[in-house]
## 1
Amino acid sequence: MQDKASSDFKATLKGWQQRTDAAIDALLPSPQTRPGVLHQAMLYSLKAGGKRLRPVLVLAGHALFPNANDPLPAAVAVECLHTYTLIHDDLPCMDDSDLRRGHATCHKQFDEETALLAGDSLLTYAFYLLADAYGKSIPAIAIQLVRDLADASGSQKLVGGQMEDLLGERTNERTPEKLDYIHHNKTAELIMAALVMGVRLTGANEAQIAQAADIGKHMGLAFQVIDDILDATSDAATLGKPSGNDEKLGKLTYVSLYGLAESRKRAHELSEKAVSAARALGGNNTFLIDLIRSMENRMS
Ligand code: GRG
């Protein structure tokens, strides 16, 4: 996920990625659970690798002002939701992609019907996890977590961003406004929600939640600009997914609209805004600031 970073940062990141992986095993239905093939497909895609950025953001948000609430179920819920979007995005009716996270996509490994249902099941399981883990112990926060995740991933944000992306391809609309809408909704909103959910679990006040959203927004926008740069400049072996797709498909991206140099400048500006917002929020923010910087320098 990064190259230049302190050893403390790298160790914490690795530890949190491993805790996420262990929590996935502990919290998801086992591969033997009936119907086995469905649970195997869900676990296949969840465990096929990935940077675990969103769960790490939940943990980083909680670590800003730590308390006794366990952020891991929320971290796994966000990763379930994210993985559903990847499975559905790879389907033949969407991007028709064979490679994801360095492995065969879910519909290639299983079949299209199973992949569709595995995505559906991960989507609903995300909300089950939030209600199950927090509903009894911290019901007021649990309702807010469900709202954060549902709002970020619904028809006016993540799915809406995907819809406008598809519509834009059909009409070849290539305006800065369209690009901004897609980046905000398809990518930044879920990244923002992940950080907000971690901070929310600390019992933070609304002003702190708004500051966390500001960090997440700039981080999410930077993340997508860098994704556009990597698609144009990297290779499939490094990315674990096909590269050069955006240009091949004539996609509207930051790079296609503004060029590489301007994209790199924009990614840096957005990352620095996220860092300033993280400094303003305070708390144990060293890891979060290192994470923002490492995302700017990521190779995959
Ligand atoms: C199909 C409902 C539906 C939505 C699809 C999120 C999305 C919308 C599609 C995924 C493809 C894409 C380019 C999304 C933009 C966000 C993004 C860069 C996702 C990839 O996230 P990473 O790089 O993936 O964090 P890993 O595998 O590391 O978790």
## 2
Amino acid sequence: MSKIKMGKIVEMDGDEMTRIIWKMIKDELLSPFVELNTEYYDLGLKHRDETNDQVSIDAGEACKKYHVGVKCATITPNAQRVEEYNLKEMWKSPNGTIRAILDGTVFRAPILVSGVKPAVRFWEKPITIARHAYGDVYKGTEFRVTEPGKAELLFTGESGEQKRATVYDFECGGVLQAQYNKDSSIRSFAHSCFNYALDTKQDLWFSTKDTISKQYDQTFKLIFEEIYENEYKEAFEKAGITYFYTLIDDAVARVIRSKGGYIWACKNYDGDVMSDMVSTAFGSLAMMTSVLVSPDGNFEYEAAHGTVTRHYYRHLQGETTSTNPIATIFAWTGALRKRGELDGNDELMKFADKLEKASLDVIESGRMTKDLAMLWQGEKPQTLSTEEFIKAIRAELEK
Ligand code: NAP
Ligand code: MG
């Protein structure tokens, strides 16, 4: 059997348990079937440290060049990791670095299998959350005041013109915060959302609190509206999908009552909170994929979970682990399918579909990793080790 040929994608290797799984997936599920054509970047923490993190920047630039990338989970160093790896510096999160280069939005979607029922009984299809990962409270400036006094918001334009508003006349101590966002970032977010909705043929919902935040949130609402009307409305109508704006509280109520099957775009904080709510309600972090979509059409796929450190330490001690590789497999299939789509490579797209189906078929036949076995509703499942599970998918794929 000849292997499937493909155009180039960017491959970003990572850390710990997911690095082990990465190799297993390539060896067992990809290389035997596809002539893998990747530009390899080792984002493992050791190599990031050796290159003074230049490799993260190079990987981000490569994603721009080839338009499609797939990334393994990586360690974001903290003080403990600096010691553990004897790092020169507490390097920034590679995801943050790549996101800054691609100016993208992260879309997170659950992978559904019969047997793991969402906590919300109405949900039948995935709900994809798009989080605007820029500004707002995450870049807020804040302090406490401890005596009575006047708090003001002051803007001094380049022209010298000033805008000033009283925030509050404090009669006692309290707290203050200022936050900002940029039109350019909101526009990029909107383009990424509209493009991804068209790409996946799903409705797009967007929610803010513009009734209360009459300038700040209103700006988000108006920018989305303007871009939709001028640039996407026709394409949406053609694709048979809709764009829908509503207040965040109304959105929450509708989401719970919905069947799923749409994208929910959220401001930074809302997205932070709601994505944890939605992913937990769908079942397992190990069944959640993530794709970074840039406004000009670059796609970087990964699993939503981390490097599964606890399992890795057990693996190092020679214990057998039962770590779920599904989200990492789907990161690969997402990237291969997108490459296929961009190149008109049907064979590659079909392979991605087959690999996903084989993976889910194994689970639905009652064989799975421990995390899923604990959530399983139905006949007693068979718990497999990481390796056994990947081998079972290989056998299914070869059928
Ligand atoms: P994590 O790696 O997602 O793991 C947290 C826990 O969730 C695990 O201990 C495990 O629970 C369960 N879990 C996650 N993925 C699983 C899988 N595929 N199969 C089975 N169980 C799974 O998060 P973390 O422990 O907070 O972070 C570990 C490292 O990952 C950190 O260094 C962090 O910086 C990094 N991280 C990277 C990314 C990224 O690259 N995108 C994202 C998040 C975190 P049990 O131990 O109970 O089985
Ligand atoms: Mg969070």
